[in-house]
Amino acid sequence: MTAQTEQELREELAAAYRLYAQFDLTDMVYTHLSVRLPGEGHRFLVNPYGLLFEEITASSLVVVDSEGHPQQETSWPVNPAGFVIHSAVHRAHPDAACVMHSHTLAGMAIAAQKDGILPLNQINMEFYRRIGFHPYEGIAADDNLSERERLVRDLGDNIGLILQNHGLLTIGSSVAQAFYRMYYLEQACRVQLAAQSTGAPLHCPSEAEVLRARAQFETDPDQGQMIWKALRRKLDREQPDYRN
């Protein structure tokens, strides 16, 4: 795949922020979505602290270093402590071009459960044994370097994390892939909560059936690209200013 320019990545990430807002994945001005910029050194795009996700545009995104410190002039602050989780993952996983984090009601509810995502639906099966689990250590702080090491350890070679008593995280080789994974990880949480709320006995297929379904997802060459293109077309019709 051809490397994307900074402007292309700005538009991709701004689109993801707008879609977070559309699909109710936000927590007001909190959480981050980040993408690695091409070139030398560790440089990333993140949201300016204080903007609602529905307000973010390509030009409002801020370039930061691996510690979350701005590398450009900006009239908006950046939250370095909020970038702690992202910086740890980006630095440890060169293939993690994009990292997305969420504090949704469903995601936080599942993060409060001991068993994580259960294979109750084929959506959930895509994430079977592909989501790590990071025990709660308090609010992420930019001076807690040891937690960064444990975050990376708990992520391992998975495609995402449940941050205990906190929220969800996904990674991807592109903004499109990370968003696809976050959207469906959120859906998996919602499915599980809905099923549990009925009080009826729950059915999980056999491990062999679950692994077969997971393999079918893993071998799909699309990996969310078709959905992402459709969502970008939707934004271009309804909120074209995200590109500004």
Automatic annotation (TrEMBL):
Residues 11-193 form the Class II aldolase/adducin N-terminal domain. InterPro entries: Aldolase-II_Adducin_sf, Aldolase_II/adducin_N, Aldolase_II/adducin_N_sf. SUPFAM superfamilies: AraD/HMP-PK domain-like (SSF53639). Pfam families: Aldolase_II. Belongs to the aldolase class II family. PANTHER family: ADDUCIN (PTHR10672), PROTEIN HU-LI TAI SHAO (PTHR10672:SF3). NCBIfam families: PRK07044.1. This is Class II aldolase/adducin family protein. It comes from Asaia spathodeae.
